[in-house]
């Protein structure tokens, strides 16, 4: 051991060069999603005409991207860890209803409603995590169960408490400023929260040692446990983070639209998974990047909104997204193989 | 003479009414390779798991450096220097060499108020350790492990165990899935580990591999130690016969012939 430590002090003989190279960029997990994003943007910039590239056009897709993006980040972490969470689809409306019922219907302070809604998201995540590690049932099934259970609870309790499936909520200037504001009249304040989330999740996944555990967990669960990684705790933390993010979006929607409905948010399930997969995350875990998830989310949002700027019927958007998803997965597979097969050329120094 | 790194004295292990290990006494010195031979179901895995803290012996004692030890869990065993390298496990194909090497024990450095993963240090130590075992082709810690050959991945796992202070290295069929050339890589690494003074328990089905590196051989049959001998005490044929369950392969030939004859005599009416 002391031998190794001693040698560490010497100048590194084998450190790889950090110089710029296209090859190194292409081997990164986000290579495919970056290409996809550029192609989709160019396509809609041409097909959508001048309006798409204006501030208004940018805001339209950026607003959508921010909402999906905040949920897509923890969903992406879970996928890298080899798990799925589709219960977000009912945590979002459940959080909306919680904040609207507490702070709107009962008129209690907004902070109480927000805290309760976030706690609800964390709780659902905690239960999901416990069920996944205790039962060994695939997380798709566990969260499918909680998706329906939470949706049923939300509907049932809302009707019992308020007698309605929609509740109005009026928030003061602080609540609006934090979660329901439009910057310059068109950019949702959610975009800023998304940026914060990108930095935080990016740090956790790529820079902290915790991120290494996530990759290890998704790569090989048994080996990760053998190496002493607390995988049970890690799984629970990840599910709680996706529940938290979903609750956050639910709250921001309620405050933005001044009302909550029991049946919003189902679209987030597929939209976030599509964004993450387009972003180069391997569905079976172990591979992916935060930058890739961000590119994937933007790509998805551009297609979703860009279609309105073209002369096409908006119904075609789903077709484009479907084809795009398949192309993205094929492209990502190609780039991943390049990364796997890469070895430095012999004799090159 | 220093005490052996690991010693088992009269170890028994049973799961409920089923005796899996029966009165096993073994020892491995520093710088010695013990080849553990035995057919499937002979109790090799149970023995390994007992040594690495997964199971506790039902009776009997385990000593390290002459002192009695009990491992509450695999983590405790690994902290005391017992490292198990499985046939495929322990390396993550889509992780970089540096990240894989330090998985669960990542080096960190200060970054403002935060502690972050120290990629440069991790890559440097990982590459040096692997190269120290003769795998000089690995010179970039950012490379993905999945791009390495099976032998190189085994080397990574062994180098990692040694780096983190392993004193007893348990190799569970490391050469089983490898080609001839890759296997010889791994055998060379086993010898390197022996040279560095580690105790090695090497589990294999291949007599050639066992004879190439083994100093000391132990054969398990139905949970009991059927033979325990030093290098040169038995011939290749005798070892092969022992591995086949203690019966001579010549006898086996005769038995197979009998079965075939019996099958042949009643084959026609079945169709």
What do these coordinates show?
Chain A: Its main location: membrane. Chain A: It is a multi-pass membrane protein. Chain A: It is found in: Cell membrane. Chain A: Part of the binding-protein-dependent transport system for D-xylose. Probably responsible for the translocation of the substrate across the membrane. Chain A: The chain crosses the membrane at residues 34-55, 61-81, 88-108, 114-133, 140-162, 182-205, 234-256, 268-285, 290-310, 316-335. Chain B: GO terms for molecular function: ATP binding; ATP hydrolysis activity. The complex is a heterodimer of chains A (349) and B (271). By secondary structure, chain A is mainly alpha-helical. Chain A has a single domain (29-332), classed as ABC transporter involved in vitamin B12 uptake, BtuC. In chain A, 71% of the residues lie in helices and 3% in strands. Chain A has helices at residues 2-8, 22-26, 31-47, 55-80, 88-105, 110-135, 139-162, 173-180, 190-207, 209-219, 221-226, 231-257, 266-278, 290-306, 316-341; strands spanning 166-168, 182-183, 187-188, 259-261. In chain A, strand 2 and strand 3 (187-188) form a beta hairpin. Chain A is globular. The two termini of chain A are 29 Å apart. Chain B is an alpha/beta fold and 271 residues long. Chain B has a single domain (6-234), classed as 3-Layer(aba) Sandwich (Rossmann fold), CATH 3.40.50.300. Chain B is 37% helix and 26% strand. Chain B contains 10 helices and 12 strands. In chain B, the strands form 3 sheets. A 6-stranded mixed beta sheet of chain B has the order 6-9-10-3-11-12, sandwiched between helices. Chain B has a 4-stranded antiparallel beta sheet with strand order 2-1-4-5, with helices on one face. Chain B has a two-stranded antiparallel sheet with strand order 7-8. In chain B, helix 4 packs across helix 5 (150-163) and helix 5 packs parallel to helix 6. The radius of gyration of chain B is 21 Å and the shape is globular. The N and C termini of chain B lie far apart (68 Å). The chains are: A mainly alpha (349), B alpha/beta (271). Chain A binds chain B through residues 1, 4, 7-8, 12, 14-16, 203, 207-209, 211-213, 215-216, 219-220, 222-224, 226-229, 282, 286-287, 336, 339-344, and chain B through 74-75, 78, 84, 89-95, 99, 102-106, 108, 111, 114-117, 120-121, 123-125, 127-129, 131, 137, 139-144, 146-147, 163, 165.
């Amino acid at each position: 051991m002391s031998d190794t430590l001693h040698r560490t002090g010497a100048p590194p003989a084998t450190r790889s060069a950090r110089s710029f190279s296209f090859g190194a960029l292409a081997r990164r997990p986000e290579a495919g999603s970056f290409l996809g994003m550029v192609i989709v943007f160019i396509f809609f910039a041409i097909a959508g005409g001048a309006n798409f590239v204006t501030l208004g056009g940018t805001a339209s897709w950026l607003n959508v991207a921010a909402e999906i993006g905040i949920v897509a980040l923890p969903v992406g972490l879970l996928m890298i860890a080899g798990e799925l969470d589709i219960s977000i689809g009912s945590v979002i409306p459940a959080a909306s209803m919680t904040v609207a019922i507490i702070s709107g219907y009962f008129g209690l302070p907004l902070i109480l409603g927000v805290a309760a809604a976030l706690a609800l998201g964390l709780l659902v995540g905690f239960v999901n995590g416990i069920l996944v590690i205790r039962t060994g049932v695939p997380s798709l099934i566990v969260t499918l169960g909680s998706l329906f259970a939470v949706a049923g609870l939300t509907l049932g309790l809302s009707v019992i408490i308020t007698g309605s499936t929609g509740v109005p909520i009026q928030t003061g200037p602080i609540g609006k400023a934090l979660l329901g504001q439009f910057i310059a009249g068109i950019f949702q304040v959610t975009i800023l929260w998304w940026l914060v989330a990108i930095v935080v999740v990016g740090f956790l996944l790529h820079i902290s040692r915790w991120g290494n555990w996530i990759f290890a967990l998704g790569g090989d669960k048994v080996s990760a446990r053998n190496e002493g990684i607390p995988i049970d705790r890690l799984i629970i933390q990840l599910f709680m983070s996706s529940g938290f993010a979903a609750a956050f979006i639910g709250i921001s929607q309620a405050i933005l639209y001044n009302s909550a409905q029991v049946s919003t948010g189902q679209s987030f399930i597929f939209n976030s998974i599509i964004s993450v997969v387009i972003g180069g995350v391997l569905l079976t875990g172990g591979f992916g990047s935060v930058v890739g998830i961000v590119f994937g989310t933007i790509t998805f949002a551009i297609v979703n909104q860009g279609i309105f700027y073209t002369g096409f019927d908006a119904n075609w958007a789903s077709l484009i997204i479907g084809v795009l998803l398949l192309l993205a997965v094929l492209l990502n597979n190609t780039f991943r193989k390049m990364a796997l097969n890469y070895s430095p050329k012999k004799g090159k120094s | 003479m220093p005490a052996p790194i690991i010693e088992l004295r009269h170890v028994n292990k049973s799961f409920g009414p089923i005796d899996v290990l029966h009165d096993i006494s073994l020892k491995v010195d520093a710088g010695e390779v013990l080849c553990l031979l035995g057919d499937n179901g002979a109790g090799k895995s149970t023995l390994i798991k007992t040594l690495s803290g997964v199971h506790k012996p039902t009776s009997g004692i385990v000593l390290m450096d002459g002192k009695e030890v009990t491992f509450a869990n695999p983590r405790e065993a690994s902290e005391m220097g017992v490292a198990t390298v499985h046939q495929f496990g322990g390396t993550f194909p889509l992780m970089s060499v540096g990240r894989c090497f330090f998985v669960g024990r990542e080096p960190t450095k200060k970054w403002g108020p935060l502690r972050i993963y120290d990629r440069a240090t991790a890559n440097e130590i990982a590459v040096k350790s692997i190269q120290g075992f003769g795998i000089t082709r690995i010179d970039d810690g950012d490379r993905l492990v999945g791009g390495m050959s099976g032998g190189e991945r085994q080397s990574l796992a062994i180098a990692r165990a040694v780096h983190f202070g392993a004193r007893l290295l348990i190799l569970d069929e490391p050469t089983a899935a490898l080609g001839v050339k890759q296997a010889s890589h791994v055998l060379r690494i086993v010898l390197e580990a022996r040279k560095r003074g580690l105790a090695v328990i090497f589990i294999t089905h291949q007599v050639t591999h066992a004879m190439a590196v083994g100093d000391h051989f132990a054969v398990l049959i139905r949970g009991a130690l059927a033979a325990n001998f030093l290098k040169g005490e038995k011939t290749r044929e005798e070892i092969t016969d022992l591995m086949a369950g203690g019966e001579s392969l010549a006898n086996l030939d005769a038995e197979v012939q009998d079965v075939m004859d019996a099958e042949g005599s009643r084959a026609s009416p079945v169709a």
